[in-house]
Design brief:
alpha/beta, four-stranded parallel β-sheet, 17 helices, about 30% helix
Length: about 575
């Protein structure tokens, strides 16, 4: 059991592994990637053609890697550094192996397309120490000044188990949880679509909090309050209460918040290794070709302007003033950049797509890490026999504190605080050291006999994603009524539905997906965009391995009426 408040259904290892394709577009991207026929090819006459890929995060690097394998020449533009929100940093003056994950740090096994690339580049994963997970020695839940120490949920007071039961009943009564989870596990596409179509129509206008309030199981305000502060899987979810319940159902149906694993050595290795990888199966380019070699080691700089030019081509101006024109381009950055940081022609997208981008709702998020001399939290309190310190969930400023080690005799890392939305904004005006001081004060109230500061061996590292100029937020989270907007963005890769003069520029990235905030969504939308570019150049998939666009009409997301 990994969740503080676990999902309603417990699974056996023998069951078919679930995949995070989501209920909106139940396409098996993992099978597509694993098929021996490959994911498609283009006519030889198009080999070597340049395609702009704007953004060097995971989505951009996956798209560029697959386009290169097809024989196209991706030209990657990156404003900052390869990796995007897969950002792994070190601590000045400390062992370089001591790192902090400023963005993505935990990945569910249901991220099966992501796992394809993790395996491809030879990265290792290990269980991530979420609240009450088997990888977590102990958890402390501290609410309203009262702390409870636990190794499993059975160690917590009865009210927490009551909240767990309320959430399970709420999911069953209001969202057909067991039926949908079973259908997704069995990849029963007709049943998935049948269940989800009804729920989208019923719940698109409902908030997460409203969904709880409508359930007889959550009539108690106290239960709703505890659930918001402790939540399920990774911790408290009250910062998601204003968001669409559909966003939350996607998470629980796909087990996105369960059984998390971290990438040994840091998640940024994934895009960096793909950047340097020399694929053994490659068309047009000689063996030994990599994205790095095609770029002489460095991507192009930030894009400052995008516009359409004669022949319906995409013209890209970068920060050096260099202007290049392409027959196709993929944009993988966060969509708000197209509204502000990048000078764009209105003609790039249909007006409805511009509206969808303008309505995108991004969540704020902040983290702060410190390096410590050793995992002192594993020391036992002589009086109680308990761990000196634990993974901590609290209603204090820190909210979530994670303890990360690589063995008892090695330096370790503490994520003193991981917060979202309003909780993140509370940190925004503070310097790293000011943030650390407040966090240590909060934790000192929970652990009055523990001197965390004496173990710190380096300066803190921190991030507030809403203050990052090339991100402006951590990840997308739809508000009630946003389903139609998300559908427009996700289906944009099906460009035969668009006016002829609005084609050729493709959207990708996790905020275009149905599973924003998860690296799996970045991979899936990258593959959608690759299919779109391939089709634009007259290419096709093998008949035995149809791509996402080939089966689109059979599994397209539910379309709600506009009037």
């Amino acid at each position: 059991m990994t969740s503080t408040v676990p999902n309603a259904v417990q699974h056996t290892d023998a069951a078919e592994p679930i995949t995070m394709f989501g209920p909106d577009f139940p396409y098996a991207y993992d099978d597509f990637l694993a098929h021996p026929a490959g994911i498609g090819q283009i006519p030889a006459t198009e080999h070597g053609t340049e395609v702009a890929v704007i953004g060097g995060g995971l989505s951009g690097i996956v798209a560029a890697y697959e386009l290169m394998k097809m024989g196209l020449k991706p030209v990657v533009y990156e404003a900052d550094e390869i990796g995007g929100r897969l950002r792994t940093v070190g601590f000045d003056g400390c062992d370089p192996e001591l790192t902090a994950e400023m963005g993505a740090m935990r990945f569910p096994p249901s991220s099966t397309a992501l796992q394809h690339y993790i395996d491809l580049v030879g990265l290792e994963t290990r269980p991530f120490p979420n609240p009450l997970s088997p990888a977590t020695p102990s958890t402390v839940v501290d609410l309203k000044g009262e702390s409870h120490y636990a190794r499993t949920i059975d160690d917590l007071p009865q009210v927490y188990r009551d909240v767990m039961d309320a959430w399970n009943r709420c999911l069953e009564e209001g969202a057909d949880f067991s039926d949908m989870n079973r259908a997704m596990r069995e990849r029963d596409v007709p049943r998935i679509r049948e269940i989800w179509a009804k729920l989208v129509q019923k719940l698109d206008n409902q908030t997460f909090y409203g969904f709880l309030c409508d359930s007889d199981s959550f009539k108690s305000f106290r239960h709703r309050e505890i659930f918001g502060q402790v939540g399920f899987g990774t911790g408290g979810w009250d910062t998601d209460f204003p968001n669409s319940i559909l966003e939350i159902l996607r998470v629980v149906y796909t087990e996105a918040d369960d059984h998390h694993r971290g990438i040994v050595g840091g998640s940024q290795q994934l895009p960096l290794r793909l950047w340097d990888r020399e694929p053994q199966k490659i068309v047009h380019w000689p063996l030994g070709t990599s994205l790095s070699s095609l770029h002489n080691g460095e991507p192009r700089p930030a894009v400052t302007r995008l516009n359409r030019t004669a022949g319906n081509r995409i013209t890209v101006t970068d920060a050096t003033g260099d202007i290049r024109t392409y027959p196709a381009a993929i944009f993988t950055g966060q969509s708000w950049l197209l509204l502000s940081k990048i000078d764009c022609d209105d003609a790039l997208f249909p007006i409805d797509h511009w509206t969808a981008m303008e309505r995108t709702h991004y969540m704020e998020s902040s983290k702060l890490f410190v390096p410590v001399d050793r995992p002192f939290w594993l020391d036992k309190d002589e009086a109680t026999g308990r761990d000196t310190m634990s993974m901590t969930l609290t209603d204090r400023m820190t909210r979530g504190t994670y303890l990360l080690d690589d063995g008892p005799d090695k330096p370790a890392v503490i994520c003193l605080s991981y917060t979202w939305c309003d909780d993140s904004l509370k940190w925004l005006p503070l310097s790293p050291n000011e943030r650390m001081d407040v966090m240590l004060k909060s934790l000192g109230e929970i652990y009055p006999d523990v001197d965390i500061r004496k173990h710190i061996i380096g300066n803190p590292v921190t991030v507030s994603w809403e203050n990052e100029p090339w991100f402006m937020g951590a990840f997308k989270a739809n508000l009630p009524g946003h389903y139609r907007y998300q559908r427009r963005l996700f289906t944009h890769f099906m460009q035969d539905r668009l006016p002829a003069d609005r084609r050729g520029l493709f959207l990708a990235g996790d905020d275009i997906s149905w599973t924003a905030g998860w690296a799996e969504g970045a991979v899936q939308t990258a593959l959608n965009a690759v299919w779109g570019v391939m089709t634009r150049f007259g290419g096709a998939t093998d008949a035995t391995n149809p791509g996402p666009g080939d089966v689109f009409d059979d599994i397209a997301p539910v379309e709600l009426p506009e009037d």
